[in-house]
Amino acid sequence: MSLKVGCQLHPQATSVGALRSAWQEADAMGADSIWVWDHFYPLYGNPDAEHFEAWTLLSAMAADTRRAMLGTMVTGNSYRNPELLADMVRTLDHLSDGRMYLGVGAGWFERDYEEYGYEFGTVGSRLRQLEADLPRMRSRLDQLNPPPVGRLPILIGGSGRKVTLRLVAEHADAWNCFGPPENVAELSAILDDWCAKVGRDPAEVERTVCIAQDDVEDVGRYTDVGVDHLIVMTGDPFDLASLQVLIDQRDAGA
Predict the structure, then answer these.
(1) How far apart are CA 66 and CA 211, in angstroms?
(2) What's the structural domain count of the chain?
(3) pTM, rounded to two decimals
């Protein structure tokens, strides 16, 4: 598999106009994927800066772009009923002509839960809920009429060695973690072990990695440890020069 590259646009301390310009530019540049995160408040900087909701943004992104796969990196599972979430992403899959990922994780940002009235619980309770909800998402996707247009891979984000990576092996088409390469290699080996335990071919799981803008040179450091898809993270002002560095290496056969 050749390397895929994309960008995550942070929907904080920005405007819808700036986000829209960035995702249109990234799509025109030839990005393989474009993502937003699923939070309700900024994750860094001014905690009360402007912020926008992920799935509403994805509706506009689906209509505005033509090439790139789209998704949340990642959705907080606790924020939406799993059947509703499946229906939302299926509908967006139609709006985008089959270019959606369903990216999901157990959730972790306590302020989201407190301010929006969700039970924060514990790491364990949130993981148990994710484990219960993943089959419900799959089941609902299979029942929806019309079904998704595209493949609609389920991506799970997280690095928990005992539970999250087991859930990836059991349920996911793709898995996301963060650099550096040494971290990816360690976690990927654990995922391979879980795949063996559950009888899954590890090659079936796309390995995606989010990286900082200062980590886009020499992507061979990542492909050497089995990474299939690199995603550079950027906030406003959206610096797509780092995305171009990834695209150039991809196109050169990195």
Answers:
(1) 24
(2) 1
(3) 0.96
